[in-house]
Amino acid sequence: MPRRAHSKNSKTVVAAIQMRMVEDPDKNQRAAEKHFRDAAKQGANVVCLPELYRSLYFCQEEDHKYFALADTIPGPTTKRLGKLAKELDIVLVASLFERRAAGLYHNTAVIFDATGAMLGRYRKMHIPDDPLFYEKFYFTPGDLGFRSWSTERGPIGVCVCWDQWFPESARLTAMAGAETLFFPTAIGWHPGEKDQYGHAQHGSWETIQRGHAIANGCYVVVPNRVGHENPAGGAGIQFWGQSFIADPSGTLIAKAGSDDEEILLAEIEPRRVEEQRTHWPFLRDRRIDAYAGLTQRLTD
Question: Which of 49, 186, 213, 224 reaches 20 to 30 Å from 260, CA-CA?
């Protein structure tokens, strides 16, 4: 099939799927595929799911049983996703628990073009280890670097959740050529902390990612989970939803609520990236001769 040209003057509709997960991976897979179909019916050209959409957020505890949830890549799940991308003529981004080898696992996003071809994968680089977010027990840090993929709907980059707090992640992905950054996410409140810290925590999360859009002159698309999950028992995590899409000026052009599943849609225009980057030339004015300290933990 000949590749369709993507014009700088063309418009693309992106969709962030705000999704509620259950214990059964097969039910989550079927629900995700329905969301893809619904998004395509609503005109979406590029669709992205939340982080680790095939299961409850199991990293709330350290338990070896959860390694059984991992997939090989390529494997049965990626085969289904590629077939669906081709059928629906959409670019598709999905976050999976990757089994690379015995004892070697990654938190990995896969990227499919509208032809159904898997363009590549991104392995989460920054791995958290916080209360109820015990990801270091499960995931080896990514080793593929920060990348951009040329799709039928323009160049995109993908990072995953905790990566979204690091300006370096967004910068290096944009420098690789990405004009739209996708951040599949699983973030929420510890219910006992929500009243005291919830507003500030959510505000920080949204603000830093809107800052990525501004600093890099690109669109930012952030699909989050929604709902309360406690596979380990106890208070669990209340995922705060509020998925959003920001334009290259950092302005929110679409935002979901905090309680329900949603398909969040927004139209993006490549010319806006060109316009923002030429009017606010941050990439031009970077002092690359003065940034050696960024490769150190701390400079004295």
Answer: 213
